[in-house]
Write a structure and sequence with these properties.
single chain; 0% strand
Length: 467
């Protein structure tokens, strides 16, 4: 920060950074989404690794070595294309977190039903329950974050356990069930061949989106020890763990139950329940569901805490009204920005549910999140290509081959990202009101991005007046 403001402490080494990438890169809901499409999704995971994750990591490593200061993709796109594009990249990334909250909490609601055993499963298709759960959870994590990390830290710590514990439990249960009863899914060479129809291709976009997260730490590179060296060391470690978790987790779910029976909102706990019943460990379903519920609450709370700092920082820069820069007089938190973040997430939860069922609302929210996140990702790949001809004052970290290698991988990542953007705009094939779904996806996304342009223009005008 300029003007003598306090600088963040550089505390994150390779191990810390790798764990941070893993926490932000793994989401249990994508395991269920992939497993619902059968063994071919495992091949798609590998394809997403090669065509999106690897190019994305290489782009981040190169851009972080070129611009190691705090700000991440906002700095990279600003330097490549100017202040407006940089602002819109940051705004789009911020808005991608808004549909994240209700979508992940819808997933959480589906899994929370299993905490009551079988007594609450009649609510699986009840929109009011899912919307009520999401709104209540948003209110809870918003309040926790206003009180500050002194109170919210315990939820984040429990959430970390709730992310890894359930995946490990399902993998172990799936392996035991397979050894005793055989696989619930028939694995043949043909079953691994990806299906090129619209329903499966829409799923590809979600799987590519699941492998995002490598960009997160670059927003806080000012807190990383020697980011030019630490980031390229931590990313491969995290990538190996993230991809292994997704692939092995998907395989374990398919060992436990047929893909046709997997529910994308409850798939992981559902697979755990089926496998536990087979091996006589039905008691484990309740703690499994509780762990998943806590894990997703902790993840949502953590992302809300981080994302709320974006409007807070923009408020300090006077591109938003000064009220966004206020901190709570007692708890010292940016409470206005946190309240706005939680409130906007609640609005999207209600709008996403309007006129559709539970699964339809979930699909709309996921599609919005993919589009809003992949737009700045596309700009990251374009920035790599654009900056190849710009000399750097520091040595760049990239693969052998220099500009040619960087450009080739950036083009592969850009093509994958643009394809995912197009596919994310299509409604799910089983959505009964496809036109309404498309209108909501594109309309709400346009509103989110259009509001960013308005904020930028108003901020520029206010800055000129102040000057």
């Amino acid at each position: 920060m300029a003007g003598g403001a306090p600088q963040p402490h550089k505390v994150m080494g390779v191990a810390d950074l790798a764990m941070f990438y893993i926490v932000t890169g793994v989401s249990l809901r994508w395991i269920a989404t992939a497993a619902a499409f059968g063994p071919s999704s495992i091949v798609v995971w590998v394809g997403a690794l090669l065509c999106f994750y690897l190019p994305f990591v290489l782009a981040i490593v190169e851009l972080s070595s070129r611009y190691p200061q705090e700000g991440g993709l906002y700095i990279w796109t600003r330097e490549a294309f100017g202040p407006y594009v940089g602002f819109m990249a940051g705004w789009s990334y911020f808005t991608s977190n808004l549909p994240y909250f209700p979508s992940v909490l819808y997933f959480d609601a589906g899994n929370a039903l299993y905490i009551g055993g079988t007594s609450l499963l009649f609510l699986r298709g009840n929109p009011l329950f899912f919307m009520g759960f999401a709104l209540t959870a948003l209110a809870f994590i918003t309040a926790i974050n206003i009180f500050g990390m002194r109170f919210g830290r315990w939820l984040h710590n429990l959430g970390a356990v709730g992310m890894w514990g359930p995946a490990l439990i399902v993998i172990v249960l799936g392996g035991i069930a397979w050894s005793q009863f055989g696989s619930a899914t028939e694995f043949t060479s043909q079953s691994f061949v990806p299906v090129f129809d619209l329903q499966h291709m829409i799923m590809w976009a979600a799987i590519a989106f699941a492998l995002s997260g490598a960009e997160t730490a670059s927003f806080m590179s000012g807190e990383i020890k020697d980011p030019r060296r630490t980031i390229p060391r931590a990313l491969p470690i995290a990538g190996l763990v993230i991809v292994s978790c997704y692939i092995i987790g998907t395989f374990a779910v398919l060992l436990a139950m047929p893909s046709s029976e997997v529910n994308t909102l409850q798939g992981l706990v559902q697979a755990g329940a089926v496998a536990a019943e087979k091996v006589g460990a039905g008691w484990i379903v309740v703690p499994l569901a509780l762990l998943i519920t806590l894990g997703n609450l902790g993840a949502a709370s953590g992302f809300l805490s981080c994302a709320a700092r974006i409007p807070f920082a923009v408020g300090i820069d006077r591109l938003l009204p000064p009220v966004f820069a206020k901190v709570h007089p007692k708890w010292g938190t940016p409470y206005v920005a946190i309240l706005v973040q939680g409130g906007l997430g609640a609005v999207l939860c209600i709008l996403g549910q309007a006129g559709t069922g539970v699964k339809g609302a979930y699909d709309v929210l996921v599609s919005m999140g993919i589009i809003a996140a992949f737009l700045p990702f596309a700009l990251v790949f374009l920035a790599v290509i654009r900056l190849q001809g710009v000399p750097s004052d520091v040595p760049l970290t990239r693969l052998p081959g220099g500009r040619v290698t960087s450009t080739v991988f950036a083009c592969i990542g850009l093509a994958t990202t643009l394809t995912a953007l197009v596919l994310a705009g299509f409604p799910a094939p089983d959505e009964p009101n496809k036109l309404l779904a498309v209108i909501k996806i594109l309309g709400l996304t346009t509103i989110l991005l259009g509001s960013g342009s308005v904020v930028y223009l108003l901020g520029q005008r206010a800055a000129r007046r102040s000057a």
